[in-house]
């Protein structure tokens, strides 16, 4: 017996659009998300999660429902992450391709269509949708523009994985979507990140969420998509499109597209609910978008509602989210299949990580870094005044094939004798490909160094590439660097990049600094000199 006075019991929440890897499922459950609908993950991750679920060993994590490997063109979106995946070339391959995905364990078929290119053509889109339907599977289409979304609806798509942000829907679209019973997963959270729509600091400080947000989560929420990302996104247009489509009766599902920049598994669903309400959905309809509706759309007959005979996936919250949707964050209890989930160990780990971060901020800077000079290369080596000097860094560890070579040459900036020459080739195949030079500020590779006594990275550069990638690794981000583009010329020029440009970092936990060419493929050569902190 649980005293629910002044509280509201909800079905376990369902995030209808995520990508699962790492600790995603564990993190989701901490925030009351008991099921995640995965739109593309590595098959080994999916199989491990499925095996745990089948063995009844997933009471400490959300369940997964997944598309497995998505459907995309050679070189298309989804193929750029360093994980080899099969791709489809034409309509003739559709049925065999879909059959292979189902054999791998796909619960539904996820299709990439429309810009940016390369992408499958209309005939292939229609053929894949028909092949999915022939096997009794939903066809979920990722289409980020109004034009491509309209074509997807015409081709028979069951679900649109995002709302378009370039146009408010017209009558033709609305009528056809109603006729074809199309469902929309707007993912306003990630659209907001794409469009630079600000995340309110009050969300990160919400007392129901903050104790469970580790430093890495706070950094993830503050991340934005790389400069120059090609999608045309206007948040107000996207929100208005949701309002129009919802008012017309188009079913809306709550999904976040976590863990893209600006999103975190579990926590972001509470932001998505708030944004859906702000876009015009009544709180009751927003709650249905994260419970009963995704369960019904994706055929999860055992969950999504509170009723006799269904799974006891439950979330108890303080207050009434029908009056204030933000009440979903005030979680008092979580049950997975009838077993109460203890959030205490997760909260304790977050507290430990926060204490560790605070300790790093108080750590002494690396010996020899007081002046800020890292390297001027005047001694004829690629060494440094502190840390481990410069070494080759490429995308090879992420599955890429780029190459680089370093050499100190007799041509320095501003009349100095020497500089570091970096040359090589950026190989095609990865959207984040790079090739260049890496510097470790600590005496141990990828160990954190407190560089917060300075505020920016400064260096001189010239070369035959127009843009370099300046990449910084932070302790709480692991091996995933934060990247800022830096334009250079054929002659020497100074570049200065503040630490805060890298995920709002204060410089206290930097593990590596990389200066590289990419992601555009091809041979390159550039030089750097007088690299320092200022």
Which keywords apply here?
about 525 residues; alpha+beta; 5-stranded antiparallel β-sheet; 22 strands
Topology:
Blueprint (H helix, E strand, L loop, with lengths): L6 E5 L1 E6 L5 H7 L2 E6 L4 H12 L8 E4 L27 H11 L4 E4 L9 H13 L4 E4 L3 H9 L4 E2 L10 H9 L3 E2 L3 H8 L5 H4 L10 H8 L12 H13 L19 H12 L4 H7 L2 H6 L16 E5 L12 E6 L2 E2 L3 H19 L10 E3 L14 E5 L8 E7 L9 E8 L8 E5 L16 E8 L3 E8 L7 E6 L5 E6 L11 E8 L4 E12 L1
Parallel strand pairs: 2-3, 3-4, 5-6, 6-7, 7-8
Antiparallel strand pairs: 1-9, 9-10, 10-11, 12-22, 13-16, 14-15, 15-22, 16-21, 17-20, 17-22, 18-19, 18-21
Helix pairs in contact: 3-4, 11-12
Describe the overall structure:
This protein is α+β, with helices and mostly antiparallel strands. It has helices at residues 24-30, 43-54, 94-104, 122-134, 146-154, 171-179, 188-195, 201-204, 215-222, 235-247, 267-278, 283-289, 292-297, 344-362; strands at 7-11, 13-18, 33-38, 63-66, 109-112, 139-142, 159-160, 183-184, 314-318, 331-336, 339-340, 373-375, 390-394, 403-409, 419-426, 435-439, 456-463, 467-474, 482-487, 493-498, 510-517, 522-533. α1 links the parallel β2 and β3. α3 (94-104) packs across α4.
